[in-house]
Amino acid sequence: MSALTEMTDILLRHAPGDGMHATRIAGLQIMRSASPTVSVPTVYTPMLCLVAQGRKQAMLGAAAYLYHPQMYLVASVDLPIVGSVIEASAAQPYLCFCLDLDTAVLSDLAVSHPELVEPQRDAAQAGLLLNHSTPPLQDAAVRLARLLDQPQEIAALAPLVLREVLYRLMADPANAVVRQMAIADSGSTRFPKPLSGCASITHSASASSRLPICRR
Fold first, then answer.
1. Which of 146, 141, 148, 144 lies closest to 23, judged by CA?
2. What Pfam families is this protein classified in (predicted)?
């Protein structure tokens, strides 16, 4: 059985109907659609979208990003997107493995494996990236999804497999956006800015309370 076939079977079991389904693994959701959808404006948060079946298009301004089982999508920052499922049916619904990009894990990988994040080798990239899916990434993602069938193992094994998924993303030469996320977060973690007094704290709390809550 191929990795994509196994992924499809797992996602079908854990997403019984259309829509976005939370799972027992923190940060992992499953998107399912049994038919093409109209274009819907939304906000993509930092995440990996790995399609097991079907096709979806994301529009960022005038740029179109088409992702499917051979091409995954990575968002590295919050982005206003207009998205639509363009290939799906009742017999073969659109299925997507949606994994939040944990910046704490990325920054730890950057510190533990500095060879992955040499700044001089990466030019700045847009916050949305399409890339070819690879067997090592698919294998790690399937092993993470497989834990949904073994919930008693999630607490012990999911953090390890999640770390491997993010390592595979960082190690891919085309994924500069992921490495840039890791560098930015590891830098802020190691060199935190000092607080400048109660006025600053009050201002920050007030500002954060006005931020809109965005969902995918």
1. 148
2. AraC_N
CA distance 173 to 213: 33
pLDDT in tens, 3-41: 999 999 999 999 999 999 999 999 999 999 999 999 999
Which domains does the chain carry?
Answer: 3-185 (2.60.120)
Q: Is the dihedral of CA 140, 12, 30, 54 positive or negative?
A: positive
Give the H or E element holding residue 42.
strand 40-44
In angstroms, the CA 210 to CA 213 distance is: 9
- Residue 178 CA, chain-centre distance (Å), reads 10
Contact predicate 131/72, CB 8 Å: yes
The full length of the chain comes to 216
3-state secondary structure at position 173: coil
Torsion of CA 158, 161, 163, 165, to 10 degrees: -130
Record the tokens describing residue 74, joined without a space.
């990575």
Q: Is pLDDT at 198 greater than 60 in this prediction?
A: no
> Among 94-98, 118-122, 175-179, 205-209, whose mean pLDDT is lowest?
205-209
State which amino acid sits at residue 185: D
Compute the 3-state secondary structure of the chain and give helix, strand, coil in percent, each to the nearest 5. 45, 30, 30
Q: Is the pTM of this model over 0.85?
A: no
